[in-house]
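Budget justification aside, the reviewers requested a transparent look at the raw inputs and outputs of the sequence design task funded under Objective 1. We therefore reproduce one unedited record. The lines immediately below are the structure tokens for a 334-residue chain.
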């Protein structure tokens, strides 16, 4: 949570947050779907702190954009700017100056929040952190569906292929991960901080180029920001982590996109997440037709929120909590 034959993987991980969410996994070599491999999953997810090595702020990096009629000069400028990025954030394809600046902004993005039981930091997932993120997603899937342990390896492979494909879409889409550092009160009355650990993950799409090729229904506007694939570690649920993953996503969207309308999906039967999204300011704009039941799918709401223009991006509404809601991963077949 490598093959010799090329396989196209199409996974949709939605931001619903309640048990009984469906996660069909579609393998489609040569554009042929294999229904026998379709899996359905469901599961629960329900101010500043000292920066550790895992979530430390990178040294300041600069972006240089030179506008000139010379193609060679522009290419040289892009190469110079690209060199400021950490190797782990480079996508392996040619990027325009605008994309390089956005990638640099993603590299420097940090969301910090003090919680009742500890502290949290959300930032961009690095390639070396992909395996632990895959493990979180795959194990959450198996746990929620009570699937045999043997499914873990298959799911890890599928999810990893999906994350690799999505990483290639940067800076138009990004996978964020959240680290949590708990605190314990000692007998002396002093507080002791636990080691930082991966707490959750969420995917954010900023525009049409970052949109998934097989989105769940009802379909959201492809050029609008979209939040999906939220998962929280089982042992760390109900601590506000899911809520803050949502808020971190909104803050990043405010910085990366000029569009204010943000979309996500929520299944009709999931009243707890529906209440949570409503509390966060999301409204239902469209609902699946009853005909989706014929495709063995649950009906879903498409929800939308209009983000306010942030004067200070670090000052967000953090009054919500996921005590009512356990955030979850949901892979949906279009």
């Amino acid at each position: 949570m490598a093959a010799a034959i090329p396989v196209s993987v199409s996974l949709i991980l939605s931001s619903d947050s309640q048990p009984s969410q469906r996660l069909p996994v579609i393998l489609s070599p040569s554009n042929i779907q294999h229904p026998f491999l379709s899996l359905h999953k469901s599961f629960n997810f329900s101010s500043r702190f000292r920066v550790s090595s895992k979530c430390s702020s990178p040294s300041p990096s600069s972006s240089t954009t030179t506008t000139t009629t010379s193609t060679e000069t522009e290419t040289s400028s892009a190469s110079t700017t690209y060199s400021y990025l950490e190797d782990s954030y480079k996508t392996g394809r040619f990027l325009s100056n605008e994309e390089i600046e956005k990638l640099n902004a993603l590299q420097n993005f940090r969301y910090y929040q003090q919680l009742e039981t500890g502290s949290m930091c959300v930032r961009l997932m690095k390639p070396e952190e992909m395996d632990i993120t895959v493990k979180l997603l795959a194990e959450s899937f198996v746990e929620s569906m009570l699937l045999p342990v043997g499914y873990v390896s298959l799911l890890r492979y599928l999810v990893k292929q999906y994350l690799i494909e999505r990483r290639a879409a940067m800076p138009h889409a990004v996978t964020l991960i959240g680290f949590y550092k708990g605190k314990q009160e000692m007998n002396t009355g002093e507080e002791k901080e636990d080691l930082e650990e991966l707490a959750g993950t969420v995917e954010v799409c900023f525009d049409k180029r970052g949109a998934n090729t097989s989105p769940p229904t009802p379909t959201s506007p492809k050029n609008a920001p979209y939040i999906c694939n939220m998962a929280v570690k089982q042992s760390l649920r109900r601590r506000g982590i899911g809520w803050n993953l949502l808020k971190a996503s909104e803050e990043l969207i405010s910085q990366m996109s000029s569009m204010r309308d943000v979309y996500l999906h929520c299944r009709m039967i999931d009243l707890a997440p529906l209440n949570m999204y409503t509390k966060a300011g999301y409204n239902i704009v469209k609902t699946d037709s009853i005909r989706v039941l014929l495709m063995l799918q649950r009906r879903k709401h498409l929800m939308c929120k209009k983000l306010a223009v942030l004067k200070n991006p670090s000052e967000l509404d953090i009054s919500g909590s996921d005590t009512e809601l356990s955030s979850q991963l949901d892979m949906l077949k279009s």
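DSSP finds six helices and 13 strands in the chain. The longest strand covers residues 173-185. Computational costs for records of this kind are itemized in the attached budget.
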